[in-house]
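Suppose you are handed a protein chain with no further information: no name, no annotation, nothing but its sequence. What can you learn? This example shows the usual starting point.
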Amino acid sequence: MIQLRGVTKKYKNNEYALKNINLDILSGEFVFLTGSSGAGKSTLMKLLYREETPTIGTVMIGNINVANLPDERVPDLRRHMGIVFQDYKLLQKQSVYDNVAYVIRTLGISTKEINARVMGALKVVGLADKIKSKPSELSGGEQQRVSIARAIVNGPPLLIADEPTGNLDPKNSLEVMHILEQINQKGITVLVSTHDHAMVNYFRKRVITLEDGQIIRDIQAGTYE
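A reasonable first move is to predict its three-dimensional structure. Written in structure tokens, the prediction is:
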């Protein structure tokens, strides 16, 4: 599913975000990416959905070298993955339904199919009764669940979540992580970047730890430290 080989990311100020990263994530895995602020977690995530490109190295998702992907093909790449952010990135003036439907309305599918996919995704996250609500009417945990529904509405094989519980209390964090685990159980590869020690320790998935742009630990059924 994901393969990084010799990946280094160096910024114009000569600071390294990543140094010679080699990494394999198999289809269907659930992986936590951990490390302190500035360790390189977000940069690695951005390489996967082509927000950044490596200075050197290859970033493969399936058979696609994302590092060399032409700009015009980036939207198609992102349609084949789900991306969840810490700050939700919802359309504040749109309903829950429209936020989730937004990403598939350009695919040329019927209104009936759009409705089926949106309602299916909202049922997965437990918000089928909130379709008419605006984001401002929802709690932080509910807003994050909407963003997860939006990420899975097109049935992507890969879900990338960058600090998905960073703005949530422990109860909502646990609910969100349980949803991500349920999504993974459907065969979707899930990669979660997090500082949340409690969640990592609770779920005991594969844990990859970054420090100063390098992988210092990669352990199955691991804990945060």
